[in-house]
Design a protein that fits this description.
- The chain contains eleven helices and 14 strands.
- By secondary structure, it is of the alpha/beta class.
- The chain has three domains: about 40 residues, no CATH class; about 130 residues, 3-Layer(aba) Sandwich (Rossmann fold); about 150 residues, Rossmann fold, CATH 3.40.50.2300.
- It has a six-stranded parallel β-sheet, sandwiched between helices.
- A hairpin with a 5-residue loop joins strand 13 and strand 14.
């Protein structure tokens, strides 16, 4: 009798792909699955009859999908998302689930998200979105796909989410700088906004207003979240005729590159410039000086989202936890301000650099 390896050799795919095709599990394209089933039939290999599934059921437990609609945070395996997905996988593994990274481009034209999830073999979705893709969550919720959005929040009760409230900690960060005597505070933020970044910018403006300081839009600069974005914002701010004496960077990578740039041009932190950043894990402890940070626990967000989703899916499918967890997850985790070594009172004469990036002597 033919074996799985015989079929794989004949079709030109791996034995694992043949196994997933025969058992109708995992991510296998329809064309490949059809080829495998046809070849298995031709070779006399016994195949399982496709089981009918009522329209209102979900895929069997065992795998959840991580679906990125967020194109602004860089590669999904670095920085913030690395911490998030560390928590996602830790929770999933503890409940005997796997996590599959799902390509949204693999969704066929006109295919519902519910059918898409069923076809690729995931029982629920962990979602990352930005300002331009939030509407996708509404569609997924309307179709009844088990889901949790990480790092964003929504009005109403149809969408499940867990996010970090960074407004209060960001407000405290700006208030901390104002309390030290700073009146010109620059901001570098992600050029693609999401709820988190809107909250941080809103906190910045509110703190200025509450302390009687005028908002200067020229001090607020969008930049790419990569190894150049923080340096670019730093250069533009420090080459202003009247540069800021303090800066708030709303992303960890921007914070670190701004600190590095300050060393390169000879602007001493915190003696000549105070810097506050955001930290998603323990990055602040790897810089010198250790930077003052709005700290959020990205790993905790991923863990709580994944734990709830896996339990929810198990309850829906009648497996372990069939009594089910709470029907909705709308969880807020608060960020905190940690004051470290990069903030101090403003200098008498702030440092400046030229547009070309060279240090200018202060008068």
């Amino acid at each position: 009798m033919a074996t799985v390896r015989d079929i794989a050799r004949s079709v030109g795919v791996s034995p694992a792909t043949v196994s997933r095709s025969l058992n109708q599990t995992g991510v296998v394209s329809k064309d490949i699955r059809d080829q495998v089933l046809a070849e298995a039939k031709r070779m006399g290999y016994p195949t399982k009859r496709k089981r009918s599934r009522p329209a209102d059921t979900v895929a069997p437990p065992g795998m959840i999908g991580a679906l990125f609609f967020n194109a602004s945070s860089g590669m999904p395996y670095s920085g913030y998302d690395a911490s998030v997905w560390g928590g996602v996988t830790r929770a999933a593994i503890s409940l005997k689930y796997g996590v599959s990274v799902v390509d949204p481009q693999a969704r066929e034209s006109g295919e519902s998200f519910r059918d898409f999830a069923r076809r690729i073999g995931v029982a629920g979705l962990i979602l990352r979105v930005d300002e331009g893709s939030r509407h996708r969550c509404e569609q997924i919720a309307e179709e009844g796909v088990p889901h949790v959005v990480i790092a964003d929040r929504f009005d109403g009760d149809s969408i499940n989410y867990v996010y970090c409230n960074s407004y209060d900690a960001s407000y405290a960060a700006i208030e901390h700088l104002i309390g030290l005597g700073h009146t010109r505070i620059g901001v570098g933020h992600n050029h693609v906004l999401d709820t988190d970044h809107h909250d941080r910018l809103r906190a910045y403006r509110q703190a200025l207003q509450d302390h009687g300081l005028e908002f200067d839009p020229q001090l607020v600069l969008p930049a790419a979240v990569d190894l150049r974005g923080g340096a670019s914002a730093f250069n533009r701010l420090m080459s202003m005729p009247e540069p800021p004496t303090a800066m708030f960077f709303t992303d960890p990578q921007m914070t670190v590159t701004a600190l590095r740039r300050s060393l390169e041009v000879g602007i001493r932190v915190p003696e000549e410039l105070s810097i506050v950043g955001v930290d998603d894990d323990q990055l602040r402890e790897m810089t010198f000086p250790v930077y003052t940070a709005v700290c959020q626990r990205a790993e905790q967000l991923g863990y709580e989202a994944s734990l709830w989703l896996c339990r929810q899916v198990a309850g829906l499918s009648g497996g372990q936890g069939s009594h089910g967890p709470a029907a909705k997850l709308q969880r807020q985790v608060d960020a905190v301000l940690e004051v470290n070594q990069t903030t101090a009172p403003p200098p008498k004469a702030p440092g400046r650099i030229s547009p070309a990036g060279n240090r200018l002597d202060t008068v």
